[in-house]
Amino acid sequence: MAALTVDQIRVPLRSFDLELTLEVDSTIAVVGPSGAGKTTLLRAIAGLVKPEAGRIAAGDHLWFDAARDVCLAPDEREVGLVFQDYALFPHMTVRQNIEYARRRRADEYLERFRIAALADVKPPSLSGGERQRVALARALARDPRVLLLDEPISALDAHTKAAVRAELHELLAGLEIPALLVTHDFEDAAALAGEVSVIVDGRVRQAGTPAELVARPADAFVASFTGANLLRGTAEPSANGSTRVRLEDGTTVVTADTAAGAVILAVYPWDITVGSAPPSDSAMNVIGGTVRSVAEFGNRVRVAIGPVTAEITAESLERLALRPGRVAFAAFKATGTRVVSQADG
After folding, report:
1. Which one-letter DSSP state was computed for residue 194?
2. Is the dihedral of CA 289, 290, 295, 298 positive or negative?
């Protein structure tokens, strides 16, 4: 598999420059907030935006090199691009959409993407998941060297999203070309890609596997973006090597990390247990407060208690009879409490 290389490109944007380097040899996700430069990155690779500096190549095929004044047109770059809204031609049938690139007949892709029965149907009659499969089939029918996906499942409703995410993961795993997807949703990125790069204001904050980003977030932004609760307080080292942190609401918690002064702690929702009374285990950090909200997602439930949100099972919610306004206690271990920012750097 020939890798996609994006080497030190620079694209001026309104408030900052997009400046980054990426090596894509499998399926990689780029995540970040709206306006971070994610879509601009895809457009630069596809030839729809011309960087001021850098180099872009797919294996031995050079697409852009500012130093050598090389800039291939979009139709010369062998890129398959799936747009956020899929951009299917509404007046064409599924078969006609797939064959639009005039590279391959549609039959192979109709079977591969399980849409043969929809060959003569037009896009307005398709579901969100069906439209996505047609868009992918059309992109791959161009025989691209690279597949680019812009927010591939953000247009889907919550009911459809989980099923389509699983299906897309299966399809991407079977590709023999590099795939780069961009999204603002870390959960989507973690489910679809083996590596994730977090970008903010046009620069990579941290890159790694989804597990690495969660286990060792580089800073408070990455921690928050990957789903952590952020707790601000003042740290003071203890004699036993741990650190005591007095939070802004006066609660004291302990972390295994070493720190002093103003800090920000990260605690992930799935590392928090919830009870109607404080736990008897003195090794646990405990935050008590009223339940601010309860949100159910299938068999998982997010419960906001004071400054933290915990993730528990639907069975635990029923057993504890939690509801907004009731008092509850969130408990978590010192080893699951990470320092992600401190005043002394």
Report:
1. S
2. positive
Q: Which residue has the tokens 């795993």?
A: 173
Q: Note the pLDDT tens digit of each residue in 9-67.
A: 999 999 999 999 999 999 999 999 989 999 999 999 999 999 999 999 999 999 999 99
Element (H, E) at 92: none
| Token pair 């601000």: residue | 232
Residues 6+ apart with CB under 8 A from 254: 238, 242, 243, 244, 245, 285, 334, 337
**Cβ–Cβ under 8 Å, residues 151 and 85:** no
For residue 239, the 8-state DSSP code is T
Q: What is the CA radius of gyration of the chain?
A: 24
Average model confidence (pLDDT) across the chain: 91
Cβ neighbors of 233 (< 8 A, separation 6 or more) are: 245, 246, 247, 248, 253, 262, 263, 265
| Helices of type H across 143-302 | 158-173, 186-192, 210-215, 220-225
What is the reported pLDDT for 152? 84
Residue 152 CB partners (closer than 8 Å, separation 6+): 82, 84, 132, 168, 181, 183, 188, 192
Q: Are 79 and 141 in contact (CB under 8 A)?
A: no
Tokens of 307: 């400054």
Q: Are the CB atoms for 303 and 317 separated by under 8 Å? A: yes
Could you write out the DSSP letters of every residue in 36-80? Answer: SSHHHHHHHHHTSS--SEEEEEETTEEEEETTTTEE--GGGS-EE
Residue whose pair of structure tokens reads 């008897």 in the numeric block = 280
Global confidence as pTM: 0.86
